[in-house]
C-alpha cells in the first residue's frame, strides 16, 4: 500500500538552544553539493586510472544527481565524488534534523531496477557509460556509500529504496563476500550491521538517518574490449523519503583505491542539542 506523508510534529525549541546549535562550528562543517544532470561531469568525476570511458548517458531531473565535497567532515569515509539520489542532492546535506527529507519527483522508475526487485520503482536516476580497461587488466573497482531516510523505521517493509551497479547487466552492489544485494532491508541495525552506520539520533552531519560504511565493489574476469556500467537508484513503494548513493571521486579504476583517512570531526554539543528537538514524522498507510 502507498504511504502518504500525514504530518510533521514540530516541537518548540528554546531560542537559546537553537542559537547555540546554529553557532556551533561543527554544524557548519559538512557536505557541499552541486546538482548537475551532465553525464560527462558525473562520469569523469569518478574516473580513475587504468580505464577509458565513452558513450555517457544520464537519466534524471535537475538536482537529482550532482557532485559533492566535504564528505570527511560530514562523516563519510571519503571527501568528494558524485551523488545520485531518488530525490534531491540537497536533501543529503546535514545535520539530520528531520526523519522525512523528501523530494517527490513523480517520475518513472527504472526497468533494470524493476527486474531486480520485482517492480514498484519510481523517481529513478541513472548514469550509464561504456568502459575499457588498460591492456592486461581484468578488474574494475570503485568505492561507495549508500544512505537513506527510509532507515530505520521502514526496514523490512516494501519501501525498500533500491540501487544497483550493473556491469554488463550483472549487479555488483553486493554485501561483501556474499551474493546479497545491498539495500535497506539487507544492511541495517539488525542485518549485516558491520557495514551499517546509524545516524538516528543524529551523530553525523548528513541528513540521511543511516548509511553504509564505505564499501569497495569490483567486477573481475573482464575480457579485453568494451564493457558497460549502469549506476541506478530509485524509490520503491512510493516517492517519499530520499535515498542516495555516494561514489568516491577518482576511484573507478583498474586497481582498488586506498581509503582516505577517517574524519576526526565530531558534531558539537549544539548540534546534539538540536537533535534532541528533532522534527518527527509519521507515515500512514493509505
Topology:
Layout (H helix, E strand, L loop, with lengths): L2 E7 L5 H9 L1 H4 L3 E4 L3 H8 L4 E9 L5 E5 L1 H4 L6 E5 L25 H7 L3 E13 L6 E9 L13 E6 L2 E2 L24 E3 L11 E3 L2 E5 L7 E10 L6 E6 L20 H7 L4 E6 L1
Antiparallel strand pairs: 1-15, 2-4, 3-6, 4-5, 5-14, 6-13, 7-11, 7-12, 7-14, 8-9, 8-13, 10-11
Question: Which runs of at least 5 residues are low in confidence (pLDDT < 50)?
Answer: 1-28, 262-286
Task: State the shape.
Answer: globular
Strand content: 25-35%
* Major sheet: 8 strands, antiparallel
H/E series, N to C? EHHEHEEHEHEEEEEEEEEHE
Number of helices: 6
Average pLDDT score: 82
Structural class: alpha+beta
How many DSSP-defined strands? Answer: 15
State the helical fraction: 10-25%
Distance between the termini: 6 Å
Number of domains: 1
Q: Rg, please?
A: 19 Å
Report what the structure shows.
The protein has helices at about 15-25, 25-30, 40-45, 70-75, 110-115, 270-275, and strands at about 5-10, 30-35, 50-60, 65-70, 80-85, 120-135, 140-150, 160-165, 170, 195-200, 210, 215-220, 225-235, 245-250, 280-285. With about 290 residues, the protein is an alpha+beta fold. The protein has one domain. Helix 1 crosses helix 6 (about 270-275). The radius of gyration is 19 Å and the shape is globular. Residues about 1-30 and about 260-285 have low confidence and may be disordered.
Amino acid at each position: 500500500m502507498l504511504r502518504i506523508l500525514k504530518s510533521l510534529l514540530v516541537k518548540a525549541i528554546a531560542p537559546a538552544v537553537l542559537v547555540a546549535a546554529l553557532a556551533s562550528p561543527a554544524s557548519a562543517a559538512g557536505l557541499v553539493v552541486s546538482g548537475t544532470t551532465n553525464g560527462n561531469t558525473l562520469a569523469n568525476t569518478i574516473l580513475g586510472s587504468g580505464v577509458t570511458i565513452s558513450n555517457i548517458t544520464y537519466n534524471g531531473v535537475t538536482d537529482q544527481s550532482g557532485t559533492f565535497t566535504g564528505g570527511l567532515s560530514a562523516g563519510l569515509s571519503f571527501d568528494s565524488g558524485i551523488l545520485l539520489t531518488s530525490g534531491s542532492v540537497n536533501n543529503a546535506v546535514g545535520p539530520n534534523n528531520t526523519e522525512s527529507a523528501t523530494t517527490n519527483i513523480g517520475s518513472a522508475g527504472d526497468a533494470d531496477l524493476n527486474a531486480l526487485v520485482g517492480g514498484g520503482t519510481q523517481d529513478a536516476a541513472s548514469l550509464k557509460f561504456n568502459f575499457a580497461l588498460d591492456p592486461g587488466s581484468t578488474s574494475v573497482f570503485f568505492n561507495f556509500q549508500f544512505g537513506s531516510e527510509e532507515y530505520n523505521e521502514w526496514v523490512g517493509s516494501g519501501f525498500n529504496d533500491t540501487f544497483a551497479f550493473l556491469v554488463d547487466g550483472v549487479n555488483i552492489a553486493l554485501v561483501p563476500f556474499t551474493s546479497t544485494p545491498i539495500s535497506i532491508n539487507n544492511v541495517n541495525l539488525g542485518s549485516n550491521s558491520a557495514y551499517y552506520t546509524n545516524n538516528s539520533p543524529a551523530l553525523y552531519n548528513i541528513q540521511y538517518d543511516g548509511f553504509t560504511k564505505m564499501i569497495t565493489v569490483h567486477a573481475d574476469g573482464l575480457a579485453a574490449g568494451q564493457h558497460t556500467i549502469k549506476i541506478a537508484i530509485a524509490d520503491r513503494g512510493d516517492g517519499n523519503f530520499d535515498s542516495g548513493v555516494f561514489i568516491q571521486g577518482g576511484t573507478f579504476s583498474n586497481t582498488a583505491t586506498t581509503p582516505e583517512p577517517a574524519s576526526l570531526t565530531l558534531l558539537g554539543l549544539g548540534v546534539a542539542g538540536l537533535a534532541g528537538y528533532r522534527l518527527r514524522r509519521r507515515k500512514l498507510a493509505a
